[in-house]
Amino acid sequence: MASRTLFGMVPVMLALSACASSGASVASDADVAQKSAALADRFQADLQGQLQAAMQQGGPVGAIAVCHEVAPALAQSLSDESGAQVRRIALRQRNPAALAEGELRAKLETLAAAPLGPDGKPASLQWTSGTSKAARVHYLRAIPMKEQPCAACHGTNVAPQVQARIAELYPDDRATGFRPGELRGAIAISWPASVGQ
Ligand code: HEC
After folding, report:
1. Can you give the pLDDT at residue 132?
2. Smallest Cα–Cα separation from 94: which of 40, 1, 168?
3. Which of ligand 1's atoms lies nearest the C-alpha of 151?
4. For the residues of 119-160, what is the DSSP string, one character each?
5. DSSP class of residue 197?
6. Residue ranges of the domains in the chain?
7. What pLDDT sits at residue 131?
8. How many Cα atoms are found within 13 Å in the side-chain-facing hemisphere of 38?
9. What are the phi and psi torsion angles at 88 (to 5°)?
10. CA of 133 to the centre of ligand 1 (A)
11. Is the dihedral of CA 119, 138, 83, 53 positive or negative?
């Protein structure tokens, strides 16, 4: 498995060696960026599809259960399938497991300052942490707050019955009061650094 991956990378490394001092890391960064973007797209599309269907069926109160169950399950199945750790994180969280700490928090603050890139799409960041075998490559993509459908459950004027249901499931909820355009959170994907090398 490892050697097959290595052989697969050789032509890319040769092609890059003319313009980069470290072909392997450039190739691997591009590989991680591409794989991460594909995972983030799927996470987003699946979740939004299910959320939309649930909102149409049962309104926001009914749809809370979908977010509660589907979002963590989707993150888990994408993690199992890819070998990366896939999750959602936030500076002000609903699910306690989403609270970003340490380095992740600092990076998320960078995205909060500019949730959209120059192309108008959600901004992303990629970096490597740790050394040698423990190194991991991290990818973050901003999830900007929108009016529809997000405000019903994360906005500045959440209906009392929605608020009550959220409080039942998330007694320490901190994820309301967001305005459109603000950073609501991010999809965080981290890979063992050897992926793609
Ligand atoms: C029907 C209510 C509802 C709607 C509408 C909704 N969310 Fe959420 N959101 C939730 C719930 C419940 C969770 C906690 C899910 C969990 O347990 O992982 C959550 C969690 C999140 C998280 C993960 C971080 C955290 O705080 O736990 C992000 C990011 C997020 N929502 C963004 C959005 C965006 C962007 C929209 C609009 C596209 C949206 N949500 C619409 C209910 C909702």
Report:
1. 78
2. 168
3. 5
4. TSSBPEEEEEES-GGG-EEEEEEEEE--STTTHHHHSSS--H
5. -
6. 2-13+22-192
7. 82
8. 10
9. -110, 140
10. 34
11. negative
Q: Where are the beta strands (DSSP E) in the chain?
A: 85-89, 124-129, 136-144, 183-192
Ligand 1 atom nearest 97 alpha carbon: 27
pLDDT per residue rounded down to tens, the chain (197 residues)? 444 444 444 444 433 333 333 333 434 788 999 999 999 999 999 999 999 999 999 999 999 988 999 999 999 999 999 999 999 999 999 999 999 999 999 999 999 999 999 999 999 999 999 887 788 999 999 999 999 999 999 999 999 999 999 999 999 999 999 999 999 999 999 999 875 44
23 C-beta closer than 6 A to ligand 1: no
Tell me how far the alpha carbon of residue 67 lies from the centroid of ligand 1, in angstroms. 6
Residues ≥6 apart with Cβ < 8 Å to 96 = 170, 172
Q: From the CB of 143, is ligand 1 less than 6 Å away?
A: yes
Answer whether 174 contacts ligand 1 (Cβ < 6 A).
no
Highest CATH level, class, for 2-13+22-192:
alpha beta
The pLDDT value recorded for residue 29 is 84
Of 137, 151, 144, 130, the C-alpha closest to 187 is: 144
Q: What is the pLDDT of residue 6?
A: 43
Ligand 1 centroid from CA 29, angstroms = 29
**75 contacts 187 by C-beta, under 8 angstroms:** no
